[in-house]
Design goal:
This protein is 76% helix and 0% strand. By secondary structure, the protein is an all-alpha fold.
């Protein structure tokens, strides 16, 4: 496959970030339980992958292999989705997405502790800015926040942890099984994640009924555009761009999610909180730069 030009690669990443910026919005618009919306995100994502594999025979090579590894990765992704969709319910799509992107700090911290990787001033600066931004957002008025809002913040940070573990496991799986194409692995992970979320949905006592057309369209968009097309565009363009450019382009996701939350769900923030969001986004960018410089873990 011919590598895309830098401009085209940037368009791929920006387009993918734009698509996945709607993920939290579609989850909010779906009138079903959080776990149910996560399950259908994987169902429709799996169907989209099935069509993709049907028309791309080369991607089917190795599809029947390494499913136990993909199940572990999918279970971690299910945890990410479970926490995140609940956080959206309590604090809204924009802030839940912002907190989920704190995974860059947790991912780097895991690398430092587990793999003894080294970090520099970018990580320290980014972490400091992000923590101060969080304090401006939530810390100054913590006592005035409702219990549900505090729970949503905690769930957002748990999303970041689950997301970091998911990325680490996915990266390790790709290193160990280099013969499996990233698109094929993502298809396996999506199916496994759907199985886990489907079981959790039954345990929680929720049904699988889709109540109306708006919910159906939101769930299809969540699975097809956010779960499949958005991430395929990002993974197509990322290898051909400098880390600094990728980091800036990926910031479109939380930035746009907050914008959509403001436009669609009347998110209102004080000037101090807006400054907090800006500082957190700058901190996330520095954190991404630090994570991008890490060497991937060696296979066992």
């Amino acid at each position: 496959m011919t590598p895309p030009s830098p401009l085209r690669a940037a368009v791929f990443v920006a387009g993918g970030a734009f698509m996945i910026s709607f993920a939290a919005i579609f989850a909010r618009l779906a009138d079903v339980a959080p776990t149910t919306s996560g399950f259908y995100r994987m169902v429709f994502g799996s169907l989209a992958f099935a069509l993709w594999l049907a028309f791309r025979p080369a991607l089917r090579e190795g599809f029947g292999q390494h499913w136990p590894t993909s199940f572990v990765v999918g279970a971690l992704f299910a945890a990410d989705i479970w926490f995140w969709h609940r956080s959206i319910e309590f604090i809204g799509p924009g802030l839940a997405t912002l907190l989920a992107n704190f995974q860059v700090f947790l991912l780097t911290a895991i690398g430092v502790i587990w793999f003894r990787e080294r970090v520099g001033w970018r990580f320290a600066s980014g972490l400091g800015l992000a923590i101060f931004g969080l304090w401006l957002l939530f810390g100054r008025e913590w006592a005035a926040l409702t219990g549900e809002f505090r729970l949503g913040i905690g769930l957002g940070l748990m999303t970041a942890l689950a997301y970091a573990l998911y990325i680490l496991a996915l990266r390790g799986a790709q290193i160990r099984h280099t013969q499996l194409r990233p698109e094929t692995r993502l298809a396996q992970v999506t199916i496994c994640c759907g199985i886990v979320l489907g079981i959790l949905n039954l345990v929680e006592g929720h049904g699988f009924a889709i109540p109306d057309g708006q919910t159906l369209l939101a769930l299809i968009a969540l699975g097809v555009f956010c779960q499949v097309l958005g991430w395929l565009l990002i993974t197509r363009g990322m290898p051909f761009l400098p880390a600094a450019i990728v980091g800036l382009l990926l910031l479109l996701q939380p930035s746009l999610s907050i914008t959509w939350d403001f436009l669609l769900f009347n998110l209102r923030l004080s000037p101090g909180q807006l400054i907090g969001i800006a500082l957190a986004l700058i901190g996330i960018y520095f954190g991404f730069r630090a994570a991008a410089r890490q060497k991937p873990p060696a296979p066992d």
